[in-house]
Amino acid sequence: MARRCGLCVALDAPDLATAEGWARATAPQAALLKVGLELFSAEGGAAVRRIAAHGPVFLDLKLHDIPNTVAGAIRALSPLRPAWLTIHAAGGAAMIAAAREAAEKAGGGDRIRILAVTVLTSLDAAALAETGVAGGPVQQVLRLGRLAVAAGADGLVCSPREVAPLRDALGEAPALVVPGVRPAGSAADDQARTATPEEMAEAGADFVVVGRPVTRAADPAAAAAAIARALAAR
Ligand SMILES: O=C(O)c1cc(=O)[nH]c(=O)n1[C@@H]1O[C@H](COP(=O)(O)O)[C@@H](O)[C@H]1O
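A: This is the predicted complex of the input protein with orotidine-5'-monophosphate.
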């Protein structure tokens, strides 16, 4: 049976008023609302608290540091109660395990779920090779995905192209969260590994993350509704 795939709207705004306007417009279509580095850097924890009034929050800070520092950051963030929080899988098994432990200690039944970012969707094979990683994105995503799930990550962030290989390798349990999704005809922007919502339909993702195609549309509510319809029509 096909999984339900929800829309996560990336609220990448320079201020809370703009982000909250997008949240209000898109919340009826959105399974998650994402507060990322730009909004959090501008507005701090107030952004998470305010956006949480419109729907479950995915706090995307992509933590990447030594285990003790990441665990401390998660303790400090835990009063904000985001549903999901990102760390970088490249931080290694000990860092991922420390993140999971900190999330468990911080919180009851609705603890923060840890998502490990594998290979950023803005990197193509050549850009990845420049960082010293040979073998291409799929191989590296599988390597980091296996490591992260074994170390305690609840889910993974990957590009549309790696969803099917990750499901084959890791089964149904880990949540797969997929940015880089672009409706047909919309600009790729700085994303390198993309697919349309329709192409995502059967691939087995739990959430697609979409920012600019929604937030820069003339009518963000209509753009979100169109993507939600495309995801549901599988
Ligand atoms: O962790 C993420 O959400 C993320 C990981 C990744 O590899 N690529 C990626 O684009 N993202 C985020 O997903 C969103 C994509 O936004 P748009 O490119 O505007 O749709 C941004 O908020 C990015 O920070």
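The chain has eleven helices and eight strands. The radius of gyration is 17 Å.
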